[in-house]
Amino acid sequence: MGSLESSGAEVVTVDVHAAKDFIKSGCKYLDVRTVEEYKKGHVGADKIFNIPYMFITPEGRVKNPQFLEEVSSACNKEDHLIVGCQSGVRSLYATSDLLTAGFKDVSNMGGGYLAWVESGYPVKKPEAENVSLLPKPEAEL
């Protein structure tokens, strides 16, 4: 897969190993998956934001019209951001959009959350969500 150069900004894709090192050194991780995907589990990072790049609607996937606005309110354009999604496709487009919007130091995490999990890296599953999900009796499963 080539880089998206039509915007004039070249997307840099790093693998999950490099992404993990960047995150450990204090980079912010921007998870652009849907809230539902995020709640099922996400990259174990101290500085993590979930701002969906796309929403799933009855008509299919629709780009989040407030994406750049929401990222701009959570991060500075000088922040080093690692952008990730489920497999690395949405994050590629999100990274391109952020670079075009003037963000200076944004990298796409190749392979996304699936590659992160496959590498055995730390994953967090939001505790608060699990509290409300009481286990069902075996008969209902």
UniProtKB/TrEMBL annotation:
InterPro entries: Rhodanese-like_dom, STR17/STR18/HARC1-like
Pfam families hit by this protein: Rhodanese
Rhodanese domain: residues covered: 23-125
MF term (GO), any: catalytic activity
UniProt cross-references to PANTHER family, sorted A to Z: THIOSULFATE SULFURTRANSFERASE 18 (PTHR44542)
Name the UniProt record assigns to this protein: Rhodanese domain-containing protein
Gene source species: Carya illinoinensis (Pecan)
